[in-house]
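The passage that follows is intended for readers who have already worked through the single-chain material. We present the inputs for a multi-component assembly, then the predicted structure in tokenized form, and finally a short commentary. You are encouraged to pause after the input and sketch how you expect the pieces to fit together before reading on.
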Amino acid sequence: MVAALLLALALCGAEKPKLWSLQPVVKPPVPAGYANPIDAFLGVRHKEKGLTPAGPADKLTLLRRLTFDLTGLPPTPAQQDAFLADDSPQAYESLAGRLLADPQHGVRWARHWLDVLRYADLDGLDGSVMPAAPGIYLWRDWMIHALNNDLPYDQFVRAQIVGNRHRALTSMSATGRRGRVEANPEDQFALGFLARAALTRNNRDQDIAIAAVETISSAFLGLTVACAKCHDHRYDPISQKDYYAMKALFDPLVLRKVVLAGPAEIRANGHAMEEYRRQMEPIEAEIETVVASYRDKLYDERVGMLPPAVQAIVRKPARQRSVAEQKIADDYFPVLRIDPPKIKEIMPKDEIARYDELLKKQRGPKRPPELTAHWVVEESPVLLNAKSYVLTSGDPMRPEKDNPVEPGFPLKPADVDFRDGRREGFVDWLTAPENPLFARVAVNRIWQWHFGEPLHRTPSDFGTLGGKPANQPLLDYLAAEFAAHDYSMKWLHNLILTSDAYKRSSRADAKNMEIDPSNTYLWRFRLQRLEAEPLWDSILLSSGDLDFTLGGKSFQTVNADSKQSIFLPRDGTFENRTNRRGAYMARGYIPSTDVMAHFLDSFDVDDGRTPCPLRTSTVTAPQSLFLMNDAMVEKASARLADLALRDASNDLKGAVDAAFRRTIGRAPSPVERDRGLSYVENDAARLKGLAWMLYNLDEFLFVR
Amino acid sequence: MPTRRETLVRLANGFLGTAMGALWADDGKMPGARLAGEPKARSVIYIFLCGGLSHIDTFDPKDNKFAGTMMDAIGFGDNNAPMKRPVIPILRTFKRYGQSGIPVSDWFPHIGQTIDEFAVVRSMHCHQTNHFPAVIEHTTGKSIRQFEHPCFGSWVTYALGTTNKNLPAFVNIGRPSSPVQLSGGYIGVSYSATPFQPGDTPIPNLMPPPGAARVERDRQMEALAALNQKFRADYVFDSEIAARMKAYELAGNMMRTAPSIVDFENEPKSVKDLYGIGVKETDDFGRQLLLARRLAQNGVRFIQLCHAGGGNGAWDAHGDMKTHEPLCRSVDQPIAGLVRDLKQQGMLDNTLVVLTSEFGRTPWSQNTTGRDHNARGFSTLLAGGGVKGGVVEGSTDEVGYKALESPHYISDLQATILRQMGLDHKKMDFHVNGRAFHLIEEGTGPITAIL
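Having made your guess, compare it with the prediction:
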């Protein structure tokens, strides 16, 4: 009976209440009585639930919280002094403004977005190769600059999907001639987002379209479209056809290598290449005369072993083979390949010596280095005319020929047109203020990165399974205002940072804990464990060793454990100054070598193969082992002790204070100072031991 | 009667177990998957020969009547095109060993002498024909890794937990073919394998770097605890802070315990000799296996050894089968030594030893004296942990290409191990975003013929 009723309800689709996140964003009225609308929306809930919000955090706690949040760095003693000294009413706001204007702000916030957009320096689970790897850091650097310049969020997204932040593609001259508007040249780097997905497998660049669908839908729409790859979505209004329609937007994309060099450099490289060929040619010709007869003999023997039909195909000149015949010839290639050792087996001794000598000579000329390049995507005219199909189980080898799809996407209105291009048509809809998901998903992420927890618990799932946000009026207010403020992320940061909610103490009390133990209603600020990158940066900065250079190739650390550490095959192609910011530490995943530093793994950083909307935050023994025993902490302890002593002109008491201030952003309490001094025992050499303790302090690893 | 404050603290610390993961002693997260009765095996020592051991040159003898003829074959690696390929002769001699009389080739004389302890499954098969996909299939039980499927060792430790709070529950020794073999995937990073190795640094950062004041550490830890006091009191409701205290405790325990595990000083020479320690060819792997035995002795659940890994793996003998010879020599005596040692320590009954590769090798060659990848038939050996010794299960066809009698998909091996560890292979499920993922999706279940 009940089952029959449920079935009837399920069949009666129109009766289903529409998903909250698909309703238009309507800006709710702001409850009265609060300076900041965020506090107004939260305050209503506090009253409803009987919660008493925690009081404001002290100045230095706020300084440390804000500096980590906006730049990923701890506040220096000079910054502490300056903020304490500024007792004007605008002290906090001008601090926030300064930090938002700091070039290091982009480094911190790009890392958040790159997690969601699956940045990786290397990828290739099954032995496939990521062609865009050598230039992929340029996408990361583009993002750093975009965030620093407060590129509006809609343009930020648009640039990464179409390579052009501007909506207008053409303009009209005074005489009525329509011309194409050139994209901002730097936006070509934004296409690294789509180019990064290409993996070369079986001599083909694959995965661009599938990765684009799955990353874009989860990152910017908060929809788990990926679930519809093999079947219609079980919970949300996304059909399998929608998945492949969206994939068809990106099906025509192919990779293109863009060389980044001026004419003189290109010419010089061309000449060097020519010179290299000139040196190689005679050597190769000589090798050919030495091996030809033996190789051909072996080859004929091998061919002779094949079935007659295959022999006939292999013996045909390549141009006369049909496509099917060429496939067979290719399949047999490994069988017919003759390697030098085989040739040597049948070669007379004196000729072997000569052959070896030539092989050695062949290794002599040095190939000129590759010019700097990066990779973009573009529509291939051939593929633009190809039909797209639903793929069985997402397998590119199994298109359902009776199930073709037109370019489209889930929730597509009838009036979307693709005259300006498929991606352009999609991105116009995606970034339009009418899109109910676009701003909601973005403000929720930005909120999460400030508070350590999103307003809507599942930042990449605004569908049925994600449930409803605890405070939808607040989310909707922020979404509406974000759009109304031209999607300025810095505007949104500022609104959030100046709320009382952001400035609250992180300490819990028993009464509130009883009502809302998980702090759903934000009655306190959440205590946050430092993520891997700010931890890395803190150790380096506090010991005066941080290199602030903005951008550049990623670096790799050497694992302490030399037997199990494996290095990138092309060592030296990465800039390996390991005292740069943690955001530049290589990440990724290939089967044959470790790409990720043990440090990143143990502090919960993903490898960038799948979008990571929310980092897990574990507390584990390997993390403690790192902080206790890694050579980096040992070195930093020694440096910090020296710096603290220097700061205090060799006064031990002052040095203890300085060490506290450099690491945890505040001077020690009298009790702490005494404990520090009693450990140091009037011996400056023991300051290093104290420094080590500070790096292992809970307060060092947590942001209050 | 706990005070309200205590109750609240306990409530807040409810997430502690999650934060600590498998590194902390626990009873396992899948009580519902436990089989009734006492499990046969407490630990697994899982030896993985990276690249593909040739079954027909070692544990699955075939006569050479097809040598030199062309057979219906498939291409190499990812190329599964049908084609004719020449069968190459097997140059090994086989000898029947022990009471069971199971034949073993001259590449494994030591294992031969202990063959009565082993069950030889000659009818294993999988789908993937190239290394990385096959290794992933082997470790996750899925032929395509569309999701972040965890490796088998993570499943086992997640399900069973560990009794030892001084050591990680899941340990990997040696370089794997693929990092997926160590990955906790969607189960979580805390269920990933902890790399371990013989020598002075068994775990990354286990010991203070040279120059650090080792003797000073105890004093520092004491002073550190005092300095943490106020913060910890302020954040008594935050489970992460409580977890951190435990993390340092475990780290300290590991620092004390792990060096003694890798210190073989007190092992008698007779034991070291069993493993071939001190002999050039066998020293390396012998030490790794002795370490494995010592870890099992100390309650580590899942000890995975990857031999000759990195890239395709050195067992990948395309060019010449002779490249197997030194590899066989380096593992033969240590593996036999491990089984003998476990037996004399009284541990063989509750320690399951597994010897396998991602796939076997083909009867034919590319154009060389080596063999290609063979996913359709290969051999896996098991010993101890309640597995019958001296038995052969299944067979391949007369050239050794395809599994013929009692074929076992690789999930059957996992199901067998789970059964011996006291777990129901049908209940190994993990829920992600409302979707259930099953460890075992194919095959016929545990290989009961060898149990």
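Commentary: Chain A touches chain B through 82 residues (CB under 8 Å). The first strand of chain A starts at residue 122 and ends at 123. How closely did your sketch match?
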